[in-house]
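User: Design a sequence. Structure:
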């Protein structure tokens, strides 16, 4: 039975690794976006790490009937049907279908592998990894578009950037998602804040990284609540600063194109990740020190008690 368990476990992880490589290859051939490939690889690595942590506990959980590698006929047929549909569609879909096909491929493929390995009853034991496979790989642009429609981030970003410029001494007025800039020696200029300039995609990416961190690291409930807010605020503020810079540079097309293009966007994306990483490091380091301090205090009290006892002997 132990050999069967080890064999099932091996084929489960081998199938999942093969499917991850398949998804990454398909994504690269379709989009040829290196940033998307790197982030997708990071997300797959996090899912494998969660499963690897669970691997050491799996054999004990099997004995307690809390985890299993037992499937049934209907679950197996369902899983192979999902995987077969994905493989068939991957060689026959049109370019415009990639927007609908690629985002859901990791989730449904992972669902199929779990159904084959553990049946429908085994879905609950991988609920976190399954949830992450659905959220992390969904395109940030699509999630950002819905976020923008819900919160009108174009207008909010324009108003915030206008306030920044106004308090820095520039003569500006905001009208809807437009910023009107008056430079005495150069004239009037209008900056229209489009969706791509709002930094929503950066906010969504930061939010995904927060989910990734919270799934991998033990932290307090308050930290789990505040870190996603911090991620969104950092992305929003840096996006507004970028809009302010581009507004001021409207009279100089070459400089404006630089900050409006890929290079300028990557600078702010890198800056956002560095700031957020620093906040996470400080928060988790403080938590680590807080958890160590009581132990150290207990040790000091024990040592002091021991010295006092020896003194009065």
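Assistant: Done.
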């Amino acid at each position: 039975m132990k050999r069967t368990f080890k064999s099932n476990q091996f084929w489960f992880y081998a199938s999942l690794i093969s499917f991850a490589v398949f998804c990454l290859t398909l994504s690269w051939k379709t989009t040829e976006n290196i940033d998307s490939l790197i982030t997708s690889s990071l997300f797959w690595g996090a899912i494998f790490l969660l499963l690897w942590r669970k691997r050491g506990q799996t054999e004990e959980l099997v004995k307690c009937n809390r985890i299993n590698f037992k499937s049934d006929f209907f679950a197996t047929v369902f899983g192979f049907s999902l995987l077969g549909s994905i493989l068939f569609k991957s060689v026959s879909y049109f370019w415009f279908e990639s927007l609908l096909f690629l985002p859901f491929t990791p989730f449904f493929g992972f669902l199929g592998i779990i159904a084959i390995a553990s049946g429908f009853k085994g879905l609950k034991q991988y609920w976190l990894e399954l949830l992450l496979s659905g959220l992390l790989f969904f395109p940030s642009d699509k999630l950002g578009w819905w976020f923008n429609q819900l919160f009108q981030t174009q207008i909010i970003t324009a108003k915030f950037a206008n306030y920044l410029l106004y308090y820095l001494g520039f003569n500006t007025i905001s009208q809807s998602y437009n910023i009107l800039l008056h430079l005495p020696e150069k004239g009037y200029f209008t900056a229209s804040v489009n969706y791509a300039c709002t930094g929503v995609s950066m906010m969504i990416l930061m939010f995904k990284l927060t989910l990734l961190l919270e799934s991998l690291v033990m932290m307090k409930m308050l930290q789990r609540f505040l870190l996603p807010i911090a991620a969104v605020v950092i992305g929003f503020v840096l996006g507004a600063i970028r809009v302010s810079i581009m507004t001021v540079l409207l009279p100089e097309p070459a400089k404006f194109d630089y900050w409006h293009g890929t290079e300028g966007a990557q600078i702010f994306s890198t800056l956002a990740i560095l700031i957020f990483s620093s906040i996470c490091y400080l928060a988790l380091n403080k938590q680590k020190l807080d958890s160590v301090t009581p132990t150290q205090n207990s040790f000091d009290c024990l040592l002091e008690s021991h010295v006092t006892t020896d003194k009065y002997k």
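Residues 1 and 268 are 54 Å apart (CA to CA). The beta strands are 171-175, 178-183, 187-192.
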